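Supplementary notes for students who missed Thursday's class. We covered one full example, reproduced here. Read the sequence, then the structure, then the short commentary at the end.
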Amino acid sequence: MSRPLQDNDVFHAIAHPARRAMLTALRHGERTASQLAAPFAMSAPAASQHLRVLEDAGLVAIRKAGRRRFYKLDPAPLRDVVTWADAFAAYFSARLDDLGAYLDREAATSRPAR
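Structure (token representation):
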């Protein structure tokens, strides 16, 4: 049974590609909302809404300087995502091993005879 979605859910926060891109941009330091929204064709209210989701999930901290707000990455909540993804590491490793074995077999059968 799945749990209900919460506004502060890290998985919900990173589900949208614009929010993931904003987090990626924040890896390089603080940015304003307009700097974070610049790569996207979105309105200021839309950018603010995305930033609110990231803030509610604890992924960004805000520093106010006069009328400007600077957003800073707080990656700690992403530990939940890493922990969850790590549970699948053995699966992906096994699948990659299977792919490698298949490619080796294909390469061996497609070599011209000498």
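Commentary. The first strand starts at residue 31 and ends at 32. The radius of gyration is 21 Å. If anything here is unclear, bring it to office hours.
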